[in-house]
Amino acid sequence: MRILLTGKHGQLGRCFQDVLTRANHELFAYDSAELNIADAQLVAAIIQQVKPDIIVNAAAYTAVDKAETDSENAYLVNATGPKLLAIQAADLDIPLIHVSTDYVFDGAAVEPYLPTDETNPQGVYGASKLAGEQAVKAECEKYIILRTAWVFSEYGNNFVKTMVRLAKERDVLNVVADQYGCPTYAGDLAKAILRICEQYEQGKVLAWGIYHYCGDSPISWHGFARVIFFKAERSGVIAKRPQLKAISSDQYPTPAKRPEYSVMSTEALADIGVQASLWRSSLDMVLRRLAV
Ligand SMILES: NC(=O)c1ccc[n+]([C@@H]2O[C@H](COP(=O)([O-])OP(=O)(O)OC[C@H]3O[C@@H](n4cnc5c(N)ncnc54)[C@H](OP(=O)(O)O)[C@@H]3O)[C@@H](O)[C@H]2O)c1
User: Fold this and answer.
1) Which is the catalytic residue, given 61, 103, 113, 125?
2) pLDDT attached to residue 22
3) Which cofactor does it need (predicted)?
4) What is the CATH number of the domain that holds 72?
5) Are 264 and 107 in contact (CB under 8 A)?
6) In the list 1, 142, 205, 229, which could disulfide-bond 95, CB 3.0-4.6 Å?
């Protein structure tokens, strides 16, 4: 099938291209310079020319703190962009696979968020992503929105790579211990998206809507760092684990407020034939790749 991918240089974009090399599909992949998803004319021209069977939107404005003072651009990429893609998807009567975030929630829950739970973003990034979800829902019928969280991979910037770098530079590290979420390997998310594409190609009736795609077990940032250091030392990525100190969110202020509890339920994923990211084993694989 003909798959159009946006944001090809991001973590998800690169992982999606990797999984596609082992599959028999025609990929039309674009970076932000080739296809700015906020440019209505360009989006229409490229999509109408390629005539894909499905669109995968891996493009996003992901600088959570910068978004607080750059909301115009955050909304352009995270809300206008998905809207324009959805308009084209509706025009061609093809599905749009779009990716959103746990930051649409306020983090005040005490048990895993369901896709149907009330949203209440606490910052510009989360609000702009929520606006993107709403635009997709309004503009096209055939859509799957996958809300994900705490994305890591061998590519780009992410918590795993930051921890590995800091472990090589410092003996002691302070990491926030009062925020909980579900780490997600971008490669697992990419495989899940490919599986959704292929089910659609095979004519399976997909239940369009919003799903939560994230790691199978929750942890705090501090706990995640502990796991990373343990595995990184064992696989030879770092020579020695640094001393890890637990701190509170108050001790690590950021421009954008982070949700305290952004654990999401992945139960509904079975409805679209995919399973949650087994993040601990995926982390082993990412660390092996970082070791070479
Ligand atoms: N990373 C996380 O922890 C996390 C957590 C929850 C949800 N998510 C969501 O997961 C998805 C994938 O995230 P990721 O970690 O792969 O993001 P990423 O690594 O930051 O990649 C995003 C990509 O989008 C591209 N982009 C930015 N503006 C664009 C535009 N106007 N037109 C086209 N492309 C544009 C960027 O290209 P340039 O670099 O050229 O600007 C970048 O390659 C996003 O929807 C994100 O909101 C991520």
Assistant:
1) 125
2) 85
3) Mg(2+)
4) 3.40.50.720
5) no
6) 142
